[in-house]
Amino acid sequence: MRMWIKDPIAILAEGAERGVVVEDGVIVELVASGKEPMLPVDRSFDASRHVIIPGLVNTHHHFFQTLTRAHPQAINKELFPWLNALYPIWARNVTPENFRLGTRLALTELLMSGCTAASDHHYLYPAGLESAMDIQAEEAMRVGVRMTLTRGSMNLSQKDGGLPPDAVVQDEDTILADCERVLSRYHDRSKGAMLQVALAPCAPFTVTKRLMRDSVTLAEKYDCRLHTHLGETLDEDAYCLEHFKCRPVDYLEECGWLNERVWLAHGIHFNDDEVRRLGHACVGVCHCPTSNMVLASGQCRTRELEAAGSPVGLGVDGSASNDNSNLIESVRHALMINRLTYDAASVTHFDAFRWATEGSARCLGRDDIGAIKVGRMADMAFYTLDELRFSGAGDPIAALVLCGAHAADRVMVGGDWKVEDGLPTGIDVASLRHEHGQAARRFLESL
Question: InterPro entries per the record (predicted)?
Fold first, then answer.
């Protein structure tokens, strides 16, 4: 079936003023102003109420943390005290059942905001949660979002001088065996893949150098991406200097991680030389503006990183440090914090959209999503301008960011509608809210 998505208010693509033609889940034609599709179409969709952008791509998250949003033990804290407050609560309460609910809710919330592809950095493995990646694969297919299953890991606990409790870490052999299992089962390198896999030792203060190096070996064997937290706080700098006698980027290089397979979460506290080295190695950086502001972690050097050669993507980060899973909101936050960091003229809404689409796709190693172009997958988000917040807006694309869009009216993934009239297809939102709320209540009762 050839479908013409016809005559949008505006579309974030060059030469597509009259829309796009989709066939077999792929964008096959851009229809320019004054033109008609070159070949006959089977049907059309009237997009005259919609502003269309590429489906947003989330490159860093922690889905299970939806269960501890605005937790009274963790609010008003910076990263290390925040983690110390929440680790024991997570260790006691994250079960397969509520992990599934947390994953489903985060994916649904992302989808409703206009997100069509996501990566979740799951690193917490208390006893009984060994099937975490299988649960996430099932839920991603259920919701209909493309997903990079980011098999996180921690093997350095409090008894070893690390930050997490002993109960949530695994030994290296267990971690690597499961990484191979997950890669063998789910890592799909074909165009339009719904599931891919990345390996993600959590952070310098939660994993051993050996695990970092062995993860590189596996990534090369299976041709997958690598991900970790780095450069998020000054506390991390101090930890690396004390334990490794070097700064975090030096440690990354010692572990064999300065290469194009790698994308980093946060990437805030890099000096000029480190920015240059990261860019030269094409290491990606996921900018997490909302979380960085909530935890007062600092401001990512997005412009310098991009100029040096690093792909810059966007992530909402954990639902307990961001407190929601709304990527279009994070696009707005990215614009605002970067204007504060730089200036109002040189950071535009197009920059923020680029980070959330093509930049994020590059971080994940994908060239089949992230833009409305011929040959890309038909992943798009459709927004209306009917709310009061948009009244008077002159530039429809800029209005999505400046006026604060927060929910898509429609979302398409691979040519299929996954959100219609603001609601996800196949997901009972009211039931999900009730079940997830019941599970989250137990995290409060465990205080």
Answer: Amidohydro-rel, Metal-dep_hydrolase_composite, Metal_Hydrolase, MTA/SAH_deaminase
